Amino acid sequence: MDRESVLPWLAVALGGAAVGLLGALSFRALYVLWRIVESGFSRSPAAAVTFPLLGLLASYLLVDTFAVNKSIGSATGIVLAEYHTKGAPSLRDSVVRTFAGVATIGFGGAAGPEGPGILIGPGIMQYIARILGIRSRRGRLTLAGAAAGLAGVLKTPATAILYALEVPFTRGIEKEPFLEVVLAATASYAVSVALTGPVPLFAVQVQLISGPATLVWSAILGVVAGAYSIGFSKLYGLAGRASSTMRLRGGFALTVLTGGAAVGLLGLASRSSIGPGIDLMGSVVLGALAIQSLALLLALRSFTVTATLNFGGVGGLLTPVVINGALLGALYAKLLGLEPISFYALVGAAATLAGTYKILLAPAAMVVELSGVGFMIPALLASAVSYAVSLPTTLFRFQLTGSAKEEALLRSIYSKLKGSQFLSHLRVSDVVNRAVRSVKLDDPLRVAIEVMTSEGLDELPVVDEGGRLVGRISIDDISWLGESRLDAPVSSAPLLSANSIGLDAPLDDAIERMLTAGIRTFYAVAPDGVLVGVLDEMAIVRALMGHI
Questions:
Q1: According to DSSP H, which parts of 44-85 are helical?
Q2: 99, 134, 135, 428: least surrounded by Cβ within 10 Å?
């Protein structure tokens, strides 16, 4: 094996090890800071309001002053934006966001301690690859860095690997970066264990039960978790839109003041509703909380997490979702008189993670790594039910719907039908999808982004008031705009030329142009230029598959 083939894997391993070290250090920093701040709450109730506000203010100012990309919020949301828009996070932005996450969580913000690790990971991986002169697909390193960050903090490497491969898409799994993700997560985990020991962040002792009744109750809990996932995701999205509006109208000061005050005031109602929630998870799993406390904390933490990550804070969202799921599962068990509480708390955590993040295997892996292989089937069943119940709702704007390799499939089918009488008689009008999504020149850019991310599209056609095709807009060109720019009209963004085609054009000509020129999508137009449909690779594949 020569140097050129070894060096990329060495870069990934070194990057993963570095992320494990830095992730462990960032967690230790925020944990120590949180303990100091928490002790201040006992001496002064006003500190419960003041410190979270200071944390959000510090976080926002750090990102706004020093980062090139001004994105704030959940670590997973930031990583997905970078991955799907082919962005390569700089080391500078990764470091700035890591410090912002430490400030957010250390001062009492309700966010996950895995956030700084996930945020530092992609930047470290990209930096080491650049130093060693490695030319690798940037997206692979982004996911590998995120997996390394999660594995180093939670010390659940299988969960981290599956998380990184599942989370980019609501329906599907990303297979290409598999080796990079596995190597980086393993290296990070090894370093983290060497530094701080093998015990996971949430080390829980759970009594295992079995039998048909257990599966039935787990499935019902999956329905409950799915319903909660829909509500929480909608709340999170609503808060994001409210924050954007507030920043446009009142500036960052009003936004951070509102979010910080909300988190702090809710923290006065219950100190357990703020901060990283590490100790709370243990209390929930042990069944130490009464029904009223479980219900109150589930409601409060739903709001404090939402306010923290939408109004200036930076941090993880995965562990807050897991904690809320455990609260939900424990509440479910106590209301129905089910035992043991710990079992349903853990199954609820897995189901809620599946329903909110739209991932199936990582939640099951999580419960196995925390409590043993016997929990896999109930957790997987509840996760699948929650996932199905909560579709298509998701927490993340940049979580797309699928990852099919359309070009390879089209090339294979076309090679079998090329020159056939059947294909020679087909026209574009025979297969075009007339339910085409488009935006107008005066539509806000925010609408274009929402349509593209919800539909899993890389671009959208742009039409004028008469419906005539004038160009297309790419998510790569607008996704990095700040919130203040997203209410500007589509006409203010760079418009690309659109590949148009007439309805009467032979289909085999369209396929030849697609495969030779690398065109993925044609926009079908009437003779007067009005957009009437879209012709993409999958539309052709579906039309031809029955004839090979």
A1: 47-66, 75-84
A2: 135
